[in-house]
Design goal:
2 domains; Alpha-Beta Plaits; 33% helix; nine-stranded mixed beta sheet; 16 strands; alpha+beta; Aminopeptidase; four-stranded antiparallel beta sheet; 365 residues
């Protein structure tokens, strides 16, 4: 088969796979249909997938495998998706998300796996609940995976991007506790939790306190009627930073601020913080980064080593002892109806994966 015919064949395969995958509604917690469909595809090409805490794990080949990871869930339902394709770009024609996060990566992976030799040592991990905070990956234990190095195909960056450094996240919850009273007959007897929360919010640090840290209060709950002084407001948010110490220090600042803003009003507060996941850093000199640089050049483009103030399954896999980076899959505007992905980017990712797996396999035979 000549080069042009091969390119056309790959494009047709990826197009078909992407259409099939996006036609399946798979929001977090409802991955059964897509898991069944993908399990069948893996079985057809000689893998023996097993389910581990809802995730699919499948190995093939002899020797030390390279882990290849995508997630099966989407951040929102796609039952109303009207898939469009124009000028080589897939997009949603309506208000639904496209689901290219992470079905672009998954389509490229499923296009490549049938083409590689059965002897090539690969381990496939397809996770559930990633959009809920990598919940599926968090259920894995070190013994569930054989690979010691891996690639997550999930970043909303151009193909060629290698996320070798990602931030960790801490969840925070603050309860402002006041005292209820009738808002018209006896407001002086109440302690207004909403006003305490308002003072707290107006004194928060900016969303980006420094270039490697972000802070967001994303959920506020409080009050039930208009004629009652509110006695409880709950605020939930997150702190992300590349520095564990910075996350802890900022949480301490918020706790002190909560104490100051409630104490002045006679109220009280409860403050709770919990680590969601650690950050990771893979040195540019690491063998895995060297492999990615070499194979990107061989595939006709250069690798771009980058950092990202966001988490992925790569964070969890690194915690499990699997040296892992997150690769750009080419989609843009993820988690929104503007989400789109170019077929050329998925083709590029497939070409890169084929080269990576070949190089990995050759080095171990």
């Amino acid at each position: 088969m000549d080069t042009v015919s091969r390119v056309i064949k790959v494009e047709e395969k990826i197009t078909r796979l992407f259409r099939e995958l996006t036609a399946i509604n798979s929001p977090s917690g409802q991955e059964e249909e897509i898991r069944t469909a993908v399990r069948a595809k893996l079985t057809e090409i000689g893998f023996s997938p097993r389910e581990v805490s809802g995730n699919l794990v499948a190995r093939r080949g002899a020797g030390e495998p390279l882990l290849l990871c995508c997630h099966l869930d989407t951040v929102e339902p796609t039952t109303d998706l009207n898939l469009g394709f124009e000028d080589g770009v897939f997009y949603s024609r309506g208000d639904s998300i496209l689901g290219a996060d992470d079905k672009a990566g998954l389509a490229a992976l499923l296009a490549v796996l049938p083409e590689i030799p059965e002897s090539a040592p690969v381990e496939v991990l397809l996770t559930v609940g990633e959009e809920l905070g990598m919940e599926g990956a968090k259920q894995l234990k070190p013994g569930d995976l054989k690979a010691r190095a891996g690639l997550v195909l999930d970043a909303g960056e151009p193909v060629g991007t290698v996320i070798n450094r990602a931030s960790g996240e801490m969840q925070i919850q603050i309860k402002m506790i006041g005292k209820t009273a009738h808002a018209a007959a006896a407001p002086q007897e109440g302690i207004d939790a909403i006003r305490m929360a308002a003072r707290f919010i107006t004194q928060l640090p900016p969303h980006m306190p420094d270039k490697e840290t972000s802070l967001n209060i994303g959920i506020i709950r409080g009050g039930s009627t208009t004629n009652t002084i509110c006695d409880l407001v709950e605020l939930t948010g997150e702190i992300r930073s590349f520095s564990p110490r910075r996350r802890q220090d900022l949480a301490g600042e918020l706790e002190a601020l909560a104490q100051a803003t409630t104490g002045d009003s006679g109220g009280t507060f409860q403050f709770h913080s919990q680590q969601s996941y650690d950050g990771y850093t893979i040195a540019p000199e690491d063998n895995l980064i060297g492999l990615l640089r070499k194979t990107a050049n061989a595939a006709g483009f250069g690798a771009v080593i980058s950092s990202r103030n966001a988490g992925s399954d790569a964070n969890i896999l690194n915690q499990l002892g699997v040296t892992t980076v997150n690769l750009g899959t080419g989609y843009t505007d993820g988690h929104s109806p503007r989400e789109r992905v170019a077929l050329a980017e998925m083709n590029k990712l497939a070409r890169w994966l084929r080269t990576i797996i070949g190089e990995w396999s050759d080095a171990r035979t």
